[in-house]
Amino acid sequence: MKGETLFESFRTISAKEWKQKIQYDLKGKDYNEEVVWNSPEGIKVKPFYHADDLKHINITATPVTSWRIGQVIYAGNAIMANEKALKTIKKGAEALRFLIPSENIDVSVILNNIDLSATKVYLDMQFLSKSYISNVLNTIPSSNTLIFQVDPIGHLARTGNWYESMSSDFILYNKLIALSAENITSIDVALYENAGADMVQQLAYAMSHANEYLNTLEENGNLNKLKSIEFKIAVSGNYFFEIAKLKALRNLWKILVEAYGISIPCHISSTPSKRNKTIYDYNVNMLRTTTECMSAVLGGSDSVFNMNYNSVYKKNNDFGERIALNQLILLKEESYFDKVENPAEGSYFIETLTGQLAEKALILFKAIEKDGGFLKQLKSHTIQNRIADGARKQQEKFNTKKSVLIGTNAYVSVEDKMAQELELYPFVKKNPRKTLITPIIEKRLAEELEQNRLSHE
Questions:
Q1: From CA 278, how far away is CA 449, in angstroms rounded?
Q2: Element (DSSP H or E) covering residue 285
């Protein structure tokens, strides 16, 4: 009809009608058994989603107007790190994460000729030092824009030990916050993904982990000095769920800080998961990292740091880094992933997943806090045991081929030989040492299978 839009010419179809049509087409087969599946997080995934699904879900959209192409640089030598950084910026990098192994590394040398107003810089220090950070803030112009990745709790979870002790680490952390830098706190959520935690666990542990810092800051009167917080996220291959995971993280953080009566933004930096990466048929890793970076962007990451497709077994090399950087450039420049604000917003499926993940994570978070908090559960090994249970379930699915990694446990090329290609030891390293708690260990799904194949080459 004249004046009528295309959409107005179609009547609204209810969710009930859609379900009836599907049940009719199933010809007597059970709807729940045939087209509904359960995710590892206990979420029932339906064959279709409708506006009705959003009626009982409270989602707050957090605009992310742009994202940065990131590159990780090891800064064992400050001059070489600076040279590499400048070359990387020319190639298209917009964010740099420097891995700083010791206090002997001069940050002013690393950042020489780098425009901090144009390039976001993360300092991932493998130590805890107030004098080091103070010196950076006092000597480097625009250093308030730097992100200092300080996370003593993450260090405890990863290594089993504090830098010095719980009391001294927390005292020093409070002193660092008092410096009033733009970002001094980083939450290492990637560790939980790479160790085998499911998404609900990752979200709940991220909040409980962060809550330990909020608690100590409140107790010491420093809460108002916290300006922002960073979450380091690892993104796996479950495309839509990972988009929802990142969106749920922002919603949960908003809920948490509102409980303290404050408003503090969170910054999300993402990288592909190590969990599903493989040695054999390693080129498939490029496909995996591409979709994972896509999820990271669509989920609202502020910066995305890609992983070299051969990083599992090969030392950093120009070709691998070039491919990793170009993947992100193609997503941004050729696929227009920077042209739409919140592209996943309004998707019934993703918005429903976001709400369900956030709701389940909030329940687990409250249970952790009721039991004494994240640190108490780390010390009692409750967190480690829960992650280990999730990892075992993932491993069983991989071993029985219910979870497929192309070229590794399915469509295997017997001609693929890797024993002579290994430059790095690609498996979990066993280094017995005395620790306060059992550390959370990252482990890839394909490790046992790959070790067996290598032994028979």
A1: 10
A2: helix 284-298
Q: Are strands 37-38 and 44-45 parallel, antiparallel or unpaired?
A: antiparallel
Question: 314: alpha, beta or left, given left = phi > 0 and alpha = psi -120 to 50?
Answer: beta
Task: Note whether residue 456 is domain-resident.
Answer: yes
Locate tokens 């290994």: which residue?
422
Residue 358 lies in a domain: yes
Angle at 305 between CA 302 and CA 309, to 5 degrees: 150
pLDDT tens digits, 27-70: 989 988 999 999 999 999 999 889 888 887 776 655 556 899 99
Q: How high is the pLDDT of residue 63?
A: 57
pLDDT band at residue 389 using 50, 70 and 90 as cut-offs: very high
- The predicted-structure confidence for 261-313, as pLDDT tens digits, reads as follows 999 999 999 999 999 999 999 999 999 999 999 999 999 999 999 999 999 99
β-strand pairing of 44-45 with 120-125: unpaired
* Ordered DSSP codes for 39-87: -TTSPEEPS---GGGGTT-----------EEEEEEE-SSHHHHHHHHHH
Contact status, residue 262 vs residue 274, Cβ threshold 8 Å: no
How many domains, in total, are found in the chain? Answer: 1
18 assigned to some structural domain: no
Task: Summarize the confidence of residues 397-402 as an average pLDDT.
Answer: 95
Domain assignment of residue 19, yes or no: no
Domain ranges, residue 170: 27-457
> Greatest CA separation found in the chain?
79
**CATH assignment of the domain containing 428:** 3.20.20.240
